[in-house]
Amino acid sequence: MTINPPTDRWIGRSVPRVEDAALLTGRGRFIDDLATSTTTLDAAIVRSPHGHATIRSIDLAEALQSEGVVAVITGEDIKRLTRSMTVGVKANVECWPIATDRVRYVGEPVVIVVATNRYLAEDAAERVVVDYETLAAVVEPLAALSSDAPVLHPSLGSNLINERSFSYGEPEEAFARAPHRIGIETVYPRNSCTPIETYGVIASYDPGEDAYEIEANFQGPFSIHAVVARALNVPGNRMRLKTPPSSGGSYGIKQGVFPYMILMGVAARIAGRPVKWIEDRLEHLSASVSATNRVTKLEAAVEADGRITALAWDQLEDCGAHLRAPEPATLYRMHGNMTGAYAIENVSIRNRIVLTNKTPTGLNRGFGGPQIYFPLERLMQKIAWELCLDPVAVIRRNLVPADAFPYRTAMGSLLDSGDYETVLDRAITEGGLAELIERRKSARSEGRIYGIGFAAVIEPSVSNMGYITSVLTPEERERAGPKNGAQATATIAIDPLGSVSVKVASVPQGQGHRTVLAQVVADALGLEPGAVSVVADVDTGRDAWSIASGNYSSRFAPAVAGAAKLAADRLQAKLAKVAAGKLNTAPEDIAFAGGRASSIKNPDNSVSFPRVAAAAHWAPGTLPDTVDQTIRETVFWTPDELSAPNAADEVNSSLCHGFIFDFCGIEIDPKTGEARIDRYVTMHDCGTILHPAMVDGQVRGGFAHALGAALLEEYAYGADGSFRSGTLADYLIPTVMEVPEPLILHHETPSPFTPLGAKGVGEGNCMSTPACIANAVADAIGAENLTLPLTPSRIRELIADDEPQAKNPPRGNDSSKRAGPRKLTGEGSATVAAHREKVWAMLLDPNTLDAIIPGSHGVRKASDTHFLADVTLGVGPVKGRYKADIELFDLDPPNAVTLRGKTTGALGFGEGEGRITLSDAGSGKTLISYTYEAGIGGKVASVGGRLLDGAARVVIGQFFKALANHAGGTSVPGNGLLARLRAMIGGGA
């Protein structure tokens, strides 16, 4: 950090965080820590194992008879008691928080089981039997547009739910005049946030008032409060929403908890008691929201010197199975900033939104920014390559000049302040770019693979609520009425002893609300920060709030803290009049410092702050006539600069705009393809810095998050919609071992539009770092087309030397390439101390099968070759009960038989086929040889390839070992390797 703390004020100093004492000693109050009434029930959710299927029937009989069960809720109950949730665009489609007629993504809620505790609810959930008819799925956005693609919502008629085109300036003419037309195509993948704390909801219903009270670790925006109240069919004042004091991270994703507020509200209404639901990690990975994935074609009209005169954007946004509010926020949040940090006057944009059989998307740190800057900054590098120019020179030539601020972009954004070229020069000098270039030169002379990448981005903050209406035509917006602004609220109160309390309608997720707000108010009132108490939860039935409230788009420092500053200033002005009366001087002569109000002209003429501040309580009759009261001051602030989109579709989509310039050096391991970051420099201009240490933490957190997106993290789906990233063994997030130490630099150009001059800083590296790293990798290996994440295997495929030929190349019918459930294959053998005829008879005996099938709860004989069974099996953290249907065919007694089986359960499904061959092994023994191919889907498939193949071998091995033991073969010791493996993967009853 390069910040010099001020000595005359608290803002700008890295004071100790108020929040840390409780958090570091385990005394934080998270959603699962909150006390609940003794009558509170727990909920478990039965989720879809299929990416796309029709629900033929749901059998609840066994679940309803299970111990402790109070209620079981289906989609029909939800439809009866609620309304379809608001869809993000005008479209003929319904959006329910639970599946009704069909399931459209793996993990979609199908049934809610409410019981006296979570354990009993989970047990009963496994007894719910859902009969599905699987449908073809579509997971790729381009494929979803095909005329023969399966349609997710028949009422919509296609998977394209919205399309809009925009033109600013004269893009066609600019392209016609330009000597060069340079383009790039990119695919930005799905990734997510994975906070330590998952979703949580506690809901109750008052039938006398027809009112809901819901506590949830919801982040906001609180515009969703109206969506939830409308869905629950109650006025807004009968849907009280509260948030806990502590939240274990969010980064945007906890906005997505709102469908579960609706579900648990209805569950509480039906059960007649409060209901609590805490999401588990597997549910969160497979079924919470994620960032959108986007296919982009971007072209630039370019002059010979690298100056861009026009951009043409074509964006295809994949929002998953449902377009839930506030989506398509991710697509339109950056609408006013499609030229990034560059002065480009001519722009065309085509935006299309498509639905696929994946989780619905939502807010994710930097939402919209990573998807924009990855193609834009990759294009800047390509322009430099094609025109044989220095990439930094191309960036510099296109930057908005310092004397142009406030600068209006072609799309309507008003860039508030900046000096981008100075920031660039400082980063290059202080970050040691010249030395890094020498490192690259030296590395390449030694035959090593080394590259340098750059990225220049603006970081928008304080979103204009009106940007989302850009998805509507001007005519549709006129009919709907204008939407704009970014209202922030703050209340400052003084108690009878003169103590100061602050309340804001923003939900903290680690930003240090209590610390920074205490600094802001302490500066205005001349107090120590410790004298100011800050309440950091939200209660819509108690607090001042608006639909713009919440903690999103980096609005805390510029908007929320700014509103607190305005409220403190108003209160100070009133207190100055009170103090002036007591000190017999003019209000403008009053200064507040050191816990006292003093005369500027005569500092000895002073009075304590509590004496002045508490006057409205103890002696209201002494207040000056021009002062109504000094007990409480509430400010609702929204900046004038945030107007609604106009008839030309121009919109200032955010209030203030930071600037970031990153560069990095990366070396590639030629054998493994691993990218190692040699140096990473990130320069930020976030306006006035309120707390340097927390700004440093925000930058580091954003950098780590972005590093995951660049190198590790991707939500992977099979062609059938099956989810392939269901544990943290498969969805890899960076740890301290993977995150290098970045060099963080700062430059301050205060915003003229915010009360404190602050801009956002919490999301920036999520926007800049993926593109910067990709550009460095491209520079290292000379590749033009890169797809994130840049895993070692992907990079290795792009390195230009020849791979040695595999000793055992995959066969043409390699099952791993087929569409459908995740495939498992294997083979093995076991020796049984019995003749073939005896072994054959055992394979056809249900009592024997019941004894030897792992986790069996009973085998029933439907016919001589058809058996039904109940089994409990587990893989890793996923363990559940399944219905099994087993058929034997192609019988060649007593030599061979083919076994085909299907299992279904709340945690997933499986199907497989295997050939069993019996042959004499001498001495009255039989050698059993087997080969199998199996496919699994649903939650059990999402635990990942690292466990599945081994688990399948163990479970199938258990079957034949048990058969051997049952027939009199050598027993398997209970503490042997097989037993340890079985315990490790959770197999067996």
UniProtKB/TrEMBL annotation:
UniProtKB keywords: Molybdenum, Oxidoreductase
Matching SMART domains: Ald_Xan_dh_C
Ranges for domain Aldehyde oxidase/xanthine dehydrogenase a/b hammerhead: 25-136
Lineage, highest ranks first: Bacteria, Pseudomonadati, Pseudomonadota, Alphaproteobacteria, Hyphomicrobiales
Stored CDD domains: CoxG
KW Oxidoreductase (keyword) present: yes
Region (Disordered): 800-829
Keyword Oxidoreductase: yes
Superkingdom per UniProt: Bacteria
Source organism of this protein record: Fulvimarina uroteuthidis
Annotated protein name in UniProt: Molybdopterin cofactor-binding domain-containing protein
Matches recorded under Pfam families: Ald_Xan_dh_C, COXG, MoCoBD_1, MoCoBD_2
